[in-house]
């Protein structure tokens, strides 16, 4: 390019900043939102999963407690 004039620096900085900032920030934000997507996905998955397990345990507890109350083996909650 004639000994490296301003055209050399123009293409050099153009391709340097283009490839560097484009690929770096593109893949950076891509994996950034990618991992945050999976983070919130597994977070809400385990949240609703354990809430469902807790809800089923609560139903199981109420069923056992009703059986105990029907057989008069549990502590009464009301005084009559």
From TrEMBL:
Q: Where are the transmembrane segments?
A: 7-26, 32-50
Q: Which UniProt keywords apply?
A: Membrane, Transmembrane, Transmembrane helix
Superkingdom, taxonomy of origin = Eukaryota
Q: What is this protein called?
A: Transmembrane protein
